[in-house]
Amino acid sequence: METYIIILLCVASFFAGFVDAVVGGGGLIQTPIALILLPNFPIASITGSLKIPGISGTSVAAFHYLKNVTMNWKLLVIMALFSCGFAFLGSELLTMVSNDFMKPLLFGILILLAIYTFIKKDFGQHQIKELTETKMIFLGIIISSFIGFYDGFIGPGTGSFLVVAFITILGFDFLHASANAKMVNVASNIGSITLFILKGKIIWLIAIPMAFCNAFGGWLGAKTALKKGNGFIRIFFLIVVIGTLIRFGYDVFFKH
């Protein structure tokens, strides 16, 4: 493999780590770049390899958030277990079938999400505590199961979807949603990585250096998000959602 390819992948991984730490969706940066730079590798091998830098940056960001943001540990442990298990199943399915049929559905959801976030100025600005603990755990199980499976099967945008779920369904603000989403995302990455290692799908030559770059980006992104607060995260979230729309729009309408 050419050295310049590894360097470009590392640069992409740094920016992916930064974006992912702030609001999720870092895979939307490094996944398409990896697919372009590594055209001769199987999709499953690329996806599996990118899980290593993904978990590296997410773990660093999660640790940084842990020191500054209050977590609901009972909810998180339950969600993490379901997220990990269903991500494993999603990755197993990825090695057998194509996931292209999901993209038109996601494209429509993202359009609605971008419009809602732009119009509703107070979206994710405050925490709303209206759910009982039992109901919150029940909803958390559903969220982590579906999004965990999505992470293993498709991947890009998982962090953003988790943030949205924490805000719209569980009533968190942007900062607490980003922090808690990181913990669940780490668990789903563990599930996927376990499957890909067992299948021998990881290209360690690119996975290791990308992991260091992603971790640095994750540290810087989490530090920036904590300093800037909810308003900054909301704007960043809109940018990432629009970027996601462009990516999925291209896949749905132009890529054959």
TrEMBL record:
Assigned keywords, A-Z: Cell membrane, Membrane, Transmembrane, Transmembrane helix, Transport
Protein's cellular compartments: Cell membrane
GO cellular component: plasma membrane
Transmembrane segment boundaries: 71-89, 101-119, 131-149, 161-181, 202-220, 232-250
Record keyword Cell membrane present: yes
InterPro entries associated with the record: TM_pro_TauE-like, TSUP
UniProt protein name: Probable membrane transporter protein
Family: Belongs to the 4-toluene sulfonate uptake permease (TSUP) (TC 2.A.102) family.
Highest classification ranks of the organism: Bacteria, Pseudomonadati, Bacteroidota, Flavobacteriia, Flavobacteriales
Organism from which the protein derives: Flavobacterium swingsii
Pfam families, per database record: TauE (PF01925)
Membrane topology category: Multi-pass membrane protein
Major site of localization recorded for this protein: membrane
Domain of life, per lineage: Bacteria
PANTHER family (UniProt xref): MEMBRANE TRANSPORTER PROTEIN YFCA-RELATED, TRANSMEMBRANE PROTEIN YFCA
